[in-house]
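Archive transcription. Copying these from loose printouts into the bound notebook so they stop getting lost. Printout 1 of 2:
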Amino acid sequence: MYARRLFDRYPGARKWTEDVTVIGPRLAVKGGIRAPGTIVIAGHVDGPVVSGELVRVVAGGVVRGEVKAACAVVEGTIEGPVTVTEVLEIRPGARLKGDVTAMRVAVGEGAQVRGKIRSISPVLRFSEQRGDARR
């Protein structure tokens, strides 16, 4: 059931190409992850996460370490600095503890951010307009 929802929410994870790395909900990684494509984290990672494209931390996913990517979407928890060259979206219910540097940042209503936010564009705040944001 959970896997089906994960694929519905993240079309990139559904393709299973060489460009997508998925850390499943029952997987714990000690050490860093570096990939040229998208990284979807539903489990736990203790170490830095570096992607050439997108890092997506789903609800229940946890990263304890630095995150670097072109874009990032956070629904779970990140404990560490986040550096994004384009857009960072922090969804409602997400928790981020660490300094953030990004071109653009959007923070959902109910998200928790503890740290400094450095953004070239003004920080956008949003509330989820869909029925169930966690599906």
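Printout 2 of 2:
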Amino acid sequence: MTGKWNYLPLTQEEQKIETALAQRYASCPPVSELLVQRGVTSVEEAERFFNPRLKNLHDPFLMPDMDKAVTRLNRAMGSKEKIMVYGDYDVDGTTAVALVYKYLSNFYSNIDYFIPTRYEEGYGISSDIIDDFADQGVKLVIILDCGIKANEEQCREYVHNSIGIVTALNPVIGYKNSTKIAKEALETGKSVYDLVLEHDILSKEDLDTILSPGNMIKPVKLDIKPRH
């Protein structure tokens, strides 16, 4: 099967920009057209494209929820939690892992990295991989260059079935209830989520509030009491 690339021709205004850029990069005429197609509108912008500086980067906090990610990372480092840097096996994935791991290693030692193989772990992140990290004592996973394969319902199902959510519930339901629920979950195979409801320890509304994504990332003090 063969394909053909189709692209829009330059507008008159873009052709003027291309001409100006061609005077600067005359040794390679197609470069000026490619620059225009990438949204470059001046020689100055072209120079920043070819010779980037940190000061020219976009503010990283323009990315949604970046503040939550930074808060969670700071909490992990402050609590000496084990951090795992995980990325895809392609070029940009391995490069991202190398950059983040090398940078954080300058300030933090309880950190490791993992790059999956194409034929064993496959593409993206999976519950099996997360479980393996949990067995290693990992408390925070930084996932880089992975597509989102699981929808919201699948993510919620994994959280509900994870024995690790006892840690999030413990401050609210108490050590006695947490121990009881964790032991029964391991013995019966039932989910912690279902057992908390089955024993009427919390209402479904309160349980969902505790396990909401926002609270799991940045825990806040909740005015929630166990029923018994």
